[in-house]
Structures are given as structure tokens and as C-alpha cells.
From TrEMBL:
Residues 424-510 form the Rieske domain. Keywords: 2Fe-2S, Disulfide bond, Iron, Iron-sulfur, Metal-binding. This is FAD-dependent oxidoreductase. It holds the Pfam family Rieske. It comes from the Bacteria. InterPro entries: FAD-dep_OxRdtase, FAD/NAD-bd_sf, Rieske_2Fe-2S, Rieske_2Fe-2S_sf, Rieske_Fe-S_prot_C, YhfW_C. SUPFAM superfamilies: ISP domain, Nucleotide-binding domain.
Length: 510
């Protein structure tokens, strides 16, 4: 029996979509899009509709990445973002960010009207606090200044939630949906228009110069006029110093079945310990989705207790059953809280990217995909400067996060060498379904002992920039605390920026 349930996303449980082949021969295309998440598929679909010939490369499978591991809220209410943008920039920038995401909601609604089937529903979105919160009061003032469709909603949220709250704000007529079903709709229609999708095809390198060449991990190549990188964390992050521009955060979600009336609306707390709530109905069953427990990626080993706290919260407040599904998600947060969408490098107009969605990839991703499609087909788009990756971001208010992010990376790099010594154990001490840093043949290695008592041995050095990976006991993965790369128990890359696996051996004699 499992000592602890393996993680699985509710969105991926019944995915019976098409399995696309890997790329087995080099070819050329007008445009290559790398990454079949929400931004990549929207971009590829729109480009193909507009007459471009597009090839889409996915390292794993459609829905396997960040889009398939979210709470799938489609909202312009991104925490207390608007008062922060007004403070860091001005009201014009804050309003533009609102409209950038609002247009994504309109785009999604139009697709629903066209027949997209993805369990879409219109919901109001609420921010709340259980104690006095100055940020929430400032956000209410920002709503008024920006003339958003919403405002104070303390009594409304208090009536819906089964615990006492102090204050709440609402934005009306937002949405929630099934993200993997949405990706499948995009993929099917994209292929129906003549687009090509290759799964299990990891991009390894993009050449410089005109007509860039994408080289895959198996040595196959695709040459194109333009390349779009929508891989969540850009795998070619060293050029342009993107490696220094992100905070990578991991958060957790449980889906607990309940007999109660489905929760109307979507809820997010702004308390010190944050919680996200929404419900999802499937085949007559109602699930409460509870999210939270975020931390910097790769810097927590005992992740099981994160799920346990969410499950306990659901049972205590909402009287749910035990969690049926557990999964986690990784998010990139930029230094100024705006996404990077557009030309990636100053002197290379043919390489574009979309990333840094601040945990709100459903609307930001759709908006990014449309913006990239406009830029690649010569259509004007008023949001280009707002989210340009080449913008000047380091203002006085942005210096602190920049310094903190890079000091933390340096600290984790140095700490890894110490952890290899302090956390090292004897391999005999590993229980079934347990991983850790151990001594193997007089060398320090990472070892996972599976349920069949086989030991899987990996090198602990991340193949991205050499940090020491840490064991994640709920996901059964090796996670990098510096830039968020993730590897499975056999060293295969699950999430970038790393593109190479950890060296691996299976040992029957340990």
C-alpha cells in the first residue's frame, strides 16, 4: 500500500485526448511555438487561423504542465495587484493591465459561444481577509480609482463562507473552467486547420540569427522564420539574464468531495496564511478545491504536510471528505509583477516569449497568446509596451526584490554543499517510498527507494546551473531550490529551465 497518496490533478484524470507523436525527423516551418500550455496553444491556434504554418513542440504531453495543475480561475482579480501597480507605476499602467486580462475573458467567452466545451461557468470573484488588512483597503481604493466592475462585498462573502471574515472585495462576472478540456479544444482545432503538434519533444537550444533553428534533446531540428517560447520558465534563460528576473513559487491544491451545496463564486484570502476556494462539479459529484501553502520552489522537503493542512482546512470549515486529488503548481513572479510577453532579446526580433504570469496564467496566458499572434502577423496591439520583456523594470521600488531574489539564489547554491553533508544518511535507513541524500559507494547521491524495494540513484547537481536538488516527498521528485527545475525519481526533466536529465542508475543491490 502507498504510505502516502501519489499526487494527481483532477483536470488530468479523464483526459482521453489525442496522443501526438514525437518529432523523428528534422523539418522547417514558418513559426515554431515551444510549449503546449495555454499561452502556446492560444498563440499557435490564432496564428494558424491567420494563415501561418505553425509547428508546436511539447516536452511532455498537452496538459502535463502548469496549465493542467492550477485552480483554473479565469479572473482579473489577481490578489491586491492594482494598488501595487498604481504605487509602482501609475493608474494608466494599472488600468491597462486590467484591460489586458479583461480582453482575455471576452476572448474566452466568444470561444464558448463558438462551441468550445470546457465546463465554463460565470462566477463572481472575491478577495477577503479574516483580520484587518491595510492592503485590502488600498485595493478597494484602487478599484474605485480605476472604475472596476466591483467593490466592497463583506456581507456577501461572509454569507457564503462558513467562517468569520473581516473584509471582502468583489469583481463581477469572472469565470472558471476545465483547463485541460480547453487545451484539447485548442489543440484539436489547431490541427484541424493544418497545424502540427509533436509531444515528447523537448527543445534543447535555439540558434541566434535570422531563421533560427530549434534543436531538440534527440538532435532533431526545426528551422523557422520565428520562434515563440511559452515553456513557463524559458529554457534559454541565461541569455538576457532572465535567470535573475524571476521568483519561482510552488503552491498546493486539494480536491475534496462534498455533499454540501456548491460554493457560489471564487474566493482568495489575502491573510498571512492564504487560501483559495472554488468548487467543481463532475458526473454528479461536487469537489471543493482548496489551494495555498505556497513557498519558494525547491526549498521545502516535507511537502506532504502542505497537502495535509489544506485537507484539514477543508474538513474543518466545509465538512468535506478526505482529499480525492492532490496536486501542486509552480509559478513565476517577475520583479515588477507584470508578465514578459514579446521580443525576448534586443537584437533578435525573431525570438519571442511569454512567461511570468504571477499565478494568474489563465487570463494572462490567453492574453499573451493573442498578443504574440498579433505581433507575428503585423497587427497593432496596445498592450505591447506594457508587457514587453525589454522594458526597463528596475525602478527604486524594484531594486529590493531583484537583490533579494538573487541573494536567495546565491544562498541556496552555497547551502547545497552543506546540506549534502548534514542531511546525508545511510542508504539502509531509507524506507519504502522514501527518498533522500545518502552515501552510495563512498559518493553522496540522491536515492529513492520505491514500493518494490528498488533504489533509484541520481546525481544531486542540477543540470541547469549546478545547484543541489532536494527531495520532494509528496511529489516524489528532485527539485532545484535556485530556479525551480524539477526531475522525477529517475532524473528525467519534469519542469525547466533545465533541459538535461540528472545522471541516473537503478540499483538492485542497495
Amino acid at each position: 500500500m502507498h504510505r502516502y497518496p501519489f499526487t494527481s490533478s483532477i483536470w488530468r484524470q479523464h483526459d482521453t485526448g489525442t496522443l501526438y507523436p514525437p518529432l523523428t525527423a528534422s523539418e522547417s516551418s514558418e513559426i515554431v511555438v515551444i510549449g503546449a500550455g495555454i499561452a502556446g496553444l492560444v498563440c499557435a491556434y490564432e496564428l494558424q487561423k491567420r494563415g501561418k504554418q505553425v509547428t508546436l513542440l511539447e516536452a511532455l504531453e498537452i496538459g502535463h504542465g502548469t496549465t493542467g495543475h492550477t485552480t483554473a480561475k479565469c479572473s482579473v482579480q489577481h490578489g491586491t495587484i492594482y494598488q501595487k501597480l498604481i504605487r509602482h507605476f501609475d493608474e494608466t499602467t494599472a488600468r491597462l493591465y486590467y484591460e489586458f486580462n479583461s480582453e482575455a475573458l471576452v476572448y474566452l467567452k466568444n470561444q464558448i459561444d463558438e462551441g468550445f466545451d470546457c465546463d465554463y461557468s460565470v462566477e463572481d470573484s472575491y478577495l477577503y481577509s479574516t483580520e484587518p488588512n491595510e492592503e485590502l483597503s488600498k485595493e478597494l481604493d484602487a478599484y474605485r480609482r480605476l472604475k472596476l466592475d466591483g467593490g466592497e462585498a463583506t456581507n456577501e462573502a461572509g454569507d457564503a463562507l462558513p467562517f468569520q471574515i473581516e473584509q471582502a472585495l468583489v469583481i463581477r462576472n469572472q469565470a472558471q473552467f476545465h483547463p485541460v478540456k480547453y487545451l484539447r479544444e485548442l489543440a484539436n482545432r489547431f490541427v484541424g486547420l493544418g497545424g502540427k503538434i509533436y509531444e515528447q519533444t523537448r527543445a534543447f537550444e535555439v540558434s541566434q540569427g535570422p531563421r533560427p533553428i530549434v534543436t531538440t534533446s534527440t538532435g532533431r531540428r526545426v528551422q523557422a522564420n520565428q520562434v515563440v517560447i511559452t515553456t513557463h520558465y524559458p529554457f534559454n534563460d541565461l541569455r538576457g539574464l532572465y535567470v535573475s528576473k524571476f521568483l519561482v513559487e510552488r503552491s498546493y491544491i486539494v480536491a475534496c468531495e462534498t455533499d454540501a451545496t456548491p460554493l457560489k463564486g471564487m474566493y482568495l484570502s489575502v491573510d498571512r496564511v492564504s487560501r483559495s476556494y472554488r468548487t467543481y462539479e463532475e458526473n454528479g459529484r461536487t469537489f471543493l478545491l482548496v489551494g495555498g501553502e505556497g513557498h519558494t520552489a525547491g526549498q521545502v522537503t516535507d511537502t506532504r504536510n502542505r497537502y495535509d493542512r489544506l485537507e484539514s482546512d477543508a474538513q474543518h470549515h466545509f465538512k468535506t471528505m478526505r482529499a480525492t486529488y492532490r496536486w501542486s503548481s509552480q509559478d513565476l513572479i517577475t520583479l515588477d509583477s507584470l508578465p514578459y510577453v514579446g521580443q525576448m532579446f534586443k537584437r533578435e526580433p525573431d525570438i519571442l516569449l511569454a512567461t511570468g504570469f504571477l499565478k494568474w496564467g489563465m487570463t494572462n496566458g490567453i492574453a499573451a497568446g493573442n498578443l504574440l499572434a498579433d505581433q507575428l502577423t503585423g497587427r497593432p496591439n496596445r498592450f505591447s509596451e506594457l508587457v514587453s520583456p525589454l522594458r526597463k523594470t528596475v525602478k527604486p521600488s524594484g531594486v529590493g526584490p531583484f537583490v533579494k531574489t538573487n541573494l536567495d539564489t546565491a544562498t541556496q547554491f552555497a547551502k547545497g554543499a552543506v546540506d549534502r553533508v548534514l542531511e546525508r544518511r545511510d542508504v539502509e535507513d531509507l524506507q519504502l517510498d522514501e527518498g533522500g541524500i545518502v552515501q552510495v559507494d563512498n559518493q553522496t547521491k540522491g536515492v529513492y527507494r520505491d514500493l518494490d524495494n528498488h533504489c533509484h540513484v541520481v546525481n544531486l547537481t542540477c543540470t541547469h546551473l549546478g545547484c543541489t536538488v532536494k527531495w520532494n516527498n509528496a511529489e516524489r521528485t528532485w527539485d532545484c531550490p535556485c530556479h525551480g527545475s524539477r526531475f522525477d525519481a529517475k532524473g528525467a526533466v519534469l519542469e525547466g529551465p533545465a533541459t538535461k536529465p540528472l545522471p541516473y542508475k537503478k540499483r538492485e543491490d542497495l
